[in-house]
Design a protein that fits this description.
565 residues, D-Maltodextrin-Binding Protein, domain 2, Double Stranded RNA Binding Domain, 5 domains, 5-stranded mixed beta sheet, 21 helices, 24 strands, 23% strand, globular
């Protein structure tokens, strides 16, 4: 039996879908799962506040349409994003065991919100989190934070936010480890109804698949989420209102549901705590208690004050044939390369082959050191680590002259307040050719690089007579969980090209796909630059190369390949 599983192309959606696909094939070995990429309207609205587009089905409509017309058989949704009522003809067949339902505080370094100076900026994507933050921490400025999880973390590391609040489940499912992440006190931050859980949606008349999915259903998770979503359904408002709820079973076997509704500014809070055996009755009881305490008036005020929704939501149907491109760099569907692809009518499918983990703490090794004349940033990740370093380490570097490898690194430096005097647009060799004549022998130079970056710049500077401090500020590791799904997508014809932005990604691809030349025979391998192309050719692939090492040029290269040849 073949099951076509529909999913968006974001990292989180793919990770969730792969998790379900593997669980289903373990439970029913006779089932073969085919992943089908479906682009949603919401994939084009990364800059719109969630409060303006919530409730319009922008993240689910296309997938539900694909279910109803038979293009796919199964959809995996984050339950907190799924409307409480399925469209006619569809049903949620199973709710697997829940990941963490809680929210986490993410910051560049260990901190407590209460210790942040007045006016410090905290970021969040939801009214629920924003109102609860305002209720407990009125000294903070709460700002809208859009983008997928990696993008939100990047914005925080760039200094746009002192701290941000995210769902812990998203960090776990993506395998992300920010410099500092601490679970928030549930008393201060109740989660959204259904947070951390998945909803497996099918056609209501597909009894055979429903029977197979029953093996994936977790009774306790399903019951708790039913209580939370019943509460949400009875109160109304959906994602547009500050409503938190969490249900759990106690030692005695009874379920307790805690719920909270707030005003948008956090100054008014109404709560209910109910206990009982029946999830639906419990959700209805909590909703009734909240109504008696003024919840309906709070919800109505929030909805009334909400900005007008966009007058027109972009059509997700491409105007020319749909070209799906696997993005192998560590970004999500709102990352820089994904945006460039989408702007040119292509669909990004985000499967990172390498992952970076910043080590801003290593900057303490240079705290108190003599002033550096030069700082060399070898990648944008190195700049992210610099941005996350303590101010007492970062500020003295303002007096140094900067050099960078790559256009993206130069732009990232500018975004965090530094200016690159020398840029090796084409790579390390070009940088050294321009840099060495400017650096005096004996100059103190700080080189910021990752674990996989070769020390050619360090060696050349030392031969030149410089006193070089070689600081490894981030770690690059491979992402084995992407390998299986990528192979399925390539062999099944679900994608048309693979975009490579680094030699390390090219190496990881070849390791994950030993028969890479055969797998890529009818597909396009697009390379961002010379060293990446060289690595791809070493593994038997014939790349098409961007005219310059930038995301825009790489996307343009693919556009020319598919739409102008």
């Amino acid at each position: 039996m073949k099951v076509r599983l529909g999913t968006r192309g974001s990292r989180l959606a793919l990770a969730q879908s792969q998790h379900v696909a593997e669980a289903l094939t373990r439970a029913v070995p006779a089932i073969e799962v085919e992943v089908v990429i479906v682009q949603s309207q919401g994939d084009k609205l990364f800059d719109a506040p969630l409060s303006r587009i919530a409730g319009k089905g922008v993240f689910t409509k296309e997938i539900e349409d694909a279910l109803m017309d038979g293009r796919i058989d199964l959809a995996v949704h984050s339950l907190k994003d799924l409307p409480t009522q399925s469209p006619p003809g569809l049903a949620v067949a199973a709710v697997p065991a829940r990941e963490s339902p809680w929210d986490v505080l993410v910051a560049p370094r260990p901190l407590r919100l209460v210790d942040l100076p007045a006016g410090s900026v905290a970021g969040t994507s939801s009214l629920r989190r924003a109102s609860q933050l305002r209720a407990r921490h009125p000294q903070l400025e709460i700002r809208e934070l859009r983008g997928n999880v990696p993008t939100r973390i990047r914005k925080m590391l760039e200094g746009q936010y002192a701290a941000i609040v995210l769902a812990e489940a998203g960090l776990h499912r993506l395998g992300l480890q920010p410099p500092f992440a601490e679970r928030m006190d549930p008393q201060a931050m109740l989660p959204a109804p259904g947070q951390g859980a998945l909803g497996l949606q099918i056609r209501g008349d597909d009894r055979e698949l429903a029977g197979h999915l029953a093996a994936l259903d977790d009774a306790a998770t399903s019951a708790c989420c039913t209580a939370e979503r019943t509460l949400l359904d009875r109160l109304g408002g959906g994602c547009q209102v500050p409503l938190g709820a969490h249900a759990e079973y106690g030692a005695g076997g009874e379920m307790t549901l805690r719920a909270r509704v707030l005003s948008q500014d956090g100054t008014t809070v109404v709560e209910a705590v109910c206990t009982g055996p029946d999830p639906v009755a419990l959700g209805e009881q909590a909703a009734a208690e909240l109504r008696t305490r003024g919840a309906e008036e709070l919800i109505a005020a929030v909805i009334e004050s909400a900005p007008e929704p966009p007058s027109e939501i972009p059509d997700a149907t491409p105007s020319r044939r749909e070209v799906r491109v696997i993005v192998t760099r560590d970004e999500d569907a709102d990352g820089p390369l994904s945006r460039e692809l989408r702007n040119r009518g292509m669909v990004p499918v985000c499967l990172p082959l390498v992952r970076t983990r910043l080590h801003p703490g290593v900057f303490t090794e240079i705290d108190g050191a003599p002033v550096f004349e030069w700082v060399v940033a070898t990648s944008a990740n190195a700049v992210d680590a610099l941005a996350a370093a303590p101010p007492e380490v970062r500020h003295p570097l303002q007096r140094a002259r900067f050099a960078s490898v790559g256009k993206a690194t130069t732009q990232k430096l500018e975004s965090v307040g530094f200016t690159a005097e020398v840029t090796g647009t084409a790579g390390r060799e070009e940088l050294l050719e321009a840099l060495l004549p400017l650096v005096e022998g004996g100059a103190r130079v700080l080189v910021l690089r990752g674990t996989l970056a070769p020390p050619r710049i360090v060696d050349a500077l030392r031969v030149h007579g410089c006193a070089v401090t070689d600081l490894v500020v981030y770690e690059t590791t491979r992402v084995p969980e992407s390998a299986g799904l990528m192979g399925d997508l390539l062999r099944g014809g679900a994608c048309h090209a693979v975009a490579f932005c680094s030699s390390s990604a090219a190496d990881a691809f070849a390791q994950a796909q030993p028969d890479a030349p055969h797998v890529m025979k009818n597909l396009v391998a697009a390379s961002i630059g010379g060293s990446t192309s060289e690595t791809l050719r070493h593994h038997g692939l014939t790349p098409v190369q961007a005219h310059e090492p930038s995301f825009a040029a790489l996307a343009e290269c693919l556009e020319n390949k598919f739409f102008q040849e």
